[in-house]
Amino acid sequence: xxxxFISPRGNAPFNAPFNILIALYSxxxxxxxxxxxxxxxxxxxxxxxxxQKREIPSFMFGGSRCFDPSELALWLIKKEPQLAVAARHxxxxx
Length: 94
Known about the structure:
- The chain has 94 residues and is mostly helical.
- It is 52% helix and 6% strand.
- It has one domain (17-93): Orthogonal Bundle (Arc Repressor Mutant, subunit A), CATH 1.10.10.
- It has helices spanning 17-26, 33-40, 44-52, 69-79, 83-93, and strands at residues 59-61, 64-66.
- The longest helix has 11 residues, at 69-79.
- The N and C termini lie far apart (31 Å).
- Residues 1-15 have low confidence and may be disordered.
- InterPro entries: DNA-bd_dom_put_sf (IPR009061), HTH_17 (IPR041657), SinI_DNA-bd (IPR010093).
């Protein structure tokens, strides 16, 4: 059975890069490292480490590490080029 990760914001379950991309496009506001970790199936420590090494887009706000969903979506598209076509279709439908 394939593991499914549940969105921290109560959206539909997701378990693949395309579903994560859709979830990111549907979110507003900033995400915490814990929320990003849950979406990507990683530990918060891994997300913090990736952010510190600038391997994943983030910024500091009031002493907290924050993640912009739209920046994460662009980053994911760059890492998974086949998602670019799907992203264009999703943006047209929205």
